[in-house]
């Protein structure tokens, strides 16, 4: 299968293609090869995930994140390594956050929630959701459920005693107090995201909303998994493989 055909197919999956920021937030970054037989997917493009792709004989890496410029030097190093290995790369960021099969919707489905509305608009894309459980659950059970889904420990703060019915969620980088406030304004019992700073916790405590923080990487991986599966469903001869990523945000190295 040709890379250009896959690229056009992916474009057709999104309803936000007319957004002026769409092509800045998604697309092919490196054309290492045009003939695609095996697709590897993961959240982040790093030198480590490129090595995983090489080991798995991947022709195309599909990621949620590009190698961002603010990780100084990484983008250039990744491009060099991809070309050395003749591996192509495609990323899809904010459009995937917004998409009905993307990061937020995929995690919500795994948690057994029903979507109420799209929230947290950024550059014309909705990067968050409000969702509800059919039957309320207690906070501890929700924390355990998330840890099972993400396969990693999460951080949690219980700032009210109500059972959880209504959930505000921003997969990945939703750690600003403005993000939490949007969940508060929509009467959510808990806010779930993949990033936090001190002020996230202080604000959640001040307003009395429960807070659960997983990792940026693994709160978002199911969206890119969904995209890879759609490629597989369209092109039956293509193989897909999940590329191993380290739980970097939830492990501590000791010297």
Automatic annotation (TrEMBL):
Keyword Metal-binding (UniProt): yes
Keywords from the named record: Metal-binding
A Pfam family that the UniProt record links to this protein: DUF34_NIF3
Residues the record lists as binding a divalent metal cation 2: 64
GO function terms (MF aspect): metal ion binding
Gene Ontology CC: cytoplasm
Residue sites binding a divalent metal cation 1 per the record: 65, 97, 216, 220
Domain of life assignment: Bacteria
PANTHER family linked: GTP CYCLOHYDROLASE 1 TYPE 2 HOMOLOG (PTHR13799:SF14), NGG1 INTERACTING FACTOR 3 (PTHR13799)
NCBIfam families named among the record's database cross-references: YbgI_SA1388 (TIGR00486)
UniProt record similarity statement: Belongs to the GTP cyclohydrolase I type 2/NIF3 family.
Protein name as annotated: GTP cyclohydrolase 1 type 2 homolog
């Amino acid at each position: 299968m040709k890379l250009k055909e896959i690229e056009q197919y992916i474009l057709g999956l999104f309803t936000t293609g007319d957004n002026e920021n769409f092509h800045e937030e998604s697309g092919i970054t490196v054309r290492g090869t045009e003939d695609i037989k095996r697709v590897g997917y993961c959240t982040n493009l790093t030198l480590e995930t490129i090595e995983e792709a090489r080991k798995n004989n991947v022709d195309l890496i599909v990621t949620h994140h590009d190698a961002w410029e603010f990780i100084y030097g990484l983008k250039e190093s990744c491009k060099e390594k991809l070309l050395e290995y003749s591996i192509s790369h495609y990323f899809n960021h904010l459009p995937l956050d917004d998409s009905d099969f993307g990061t937020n919707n995929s995690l919500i489905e795994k948690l057994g929630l029903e979507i109420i509305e799209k929230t947290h608009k950024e550059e014309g894309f909705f990067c968050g959701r409000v969702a509800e459980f059919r039957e309320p659950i207690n906070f501890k059970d929700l924390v355990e459920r998330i840890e099972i889904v993400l396969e990693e420990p999460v951080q949690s703060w219980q700032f009210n005693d109500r059972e959880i019915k209504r959930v505000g969620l921003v997969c990945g980088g939703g750690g600003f107090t403005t993000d939490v406030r949007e969940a508060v304004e929509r009467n959510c019992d808990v806010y779930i995201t993949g990033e936090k700073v001190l002020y996230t916790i202080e604000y959640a405590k001040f307003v009395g909303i429960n807070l659960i923080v997983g990792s940026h990487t693994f709160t978002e991986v199911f969206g890119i998994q969904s995209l890879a599966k759609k490629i597989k469903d369209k092109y039956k001869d293509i193989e897909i493989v999940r590329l191993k990523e380290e739980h970097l945000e939830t492990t501590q190295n000791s010297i």
